[in-house]
Amino acid sequence: MNASSLLTPRTLTLLGFAACTGLMAAALVLQYVVGLEPCPLCILQRVAVMLLGAVFLLAALHNPGAVGRRIYAAVALVISVVGAAVAGRHVWLQHLPPEEVPPCGPAMDYILDTFPLSRALGIILRGSGDCAALDWTWLGLSIPGWTLVAFVGFGALALLLLAYRFPAPGGLRFSARMR
């Protein structure tokens, strides 16, 4: 068995699913063991990670052909870009000077119960003082910084699944041109 036979679309999507599971496990440990409460932007990033995990798991279980693989990869790429945008916004809020940090807003439950979804998302994405808090770092990056790195990695995985022509089983490559 060579390395190229291990790097199949199914293996890569299972790795993506495992990475999403690891991120969610880390988030839950940081919340319930370390005691860090997630802000609204953290929760949106968690939702994006869970959606990505679901897409990767479905793709691995389905193990579709080239067209299906590209559809799953395109969906994963869109979720990765949205997740990276939310994480990037969060990192930006954390690096604002203290006088420019938005005031702390109401809890996410209140926002979702009180406002229509489109307005609630706008309020959440604006962020609040809670989102600007820098409670934990590792190797110089905050939790949203690491999440941004993860979303970039997931986007790269999705692009690989979208663009690369994987060899057919048995090592044969099928060509789009038939004579």
Annotated CATH topology: Bromodomain-like
The radius of gyration is: 19 Å
List the strand order in the largest sheet: 1-2
The domain count comes to 1
**What portion of the residues fall into strands of 2 or more residues?**
under 5%
Q: What's the number of helices?
A: 8
| Poorly predicted runs of 5 or more residues | none
Query: Into which percent range does the helicity of residues fall?
Result: 55-70%
Number of strands: 2
Question: Mean of residue pLDDT?
Answer: 82
Just name the CATH architecture: Up-down Bundle
In whole angstroms, the N-to-C terminal distance is 32 Å
Could you name the CATH class?
A: Mainly Alpha
Largest sheet: 2 strands, antiparallel
- How do the helices and strands follow one another from N- to C-terminus? HHHHHHHEEH
Give structural notes.
With 179 residues, the chain is mainly α. It has a single domain (8-163), classed as DsbB-like (Bromodomain-like, Up-down Bundle), CATH 1.20.1550.10. It contains 8 helices and 2 strands, in the order H-H-H-H-H-H-H-E-E-H. The protein has helices at residues 3-6, 9-32, 40-62, 66-94, 108-114, 117-126, 129-132, 143-163, and strands at residues 137-138, 141-142. A two-stranded antiparallel sheet has the order 1-2. Strand 1 and strand 2 form a beta hairpin. Helix 5 runs antiparallel to helix 6 (117-126). The radius of gyration is 19 Å and the shape is elongated. The mean pLDDT is 82.
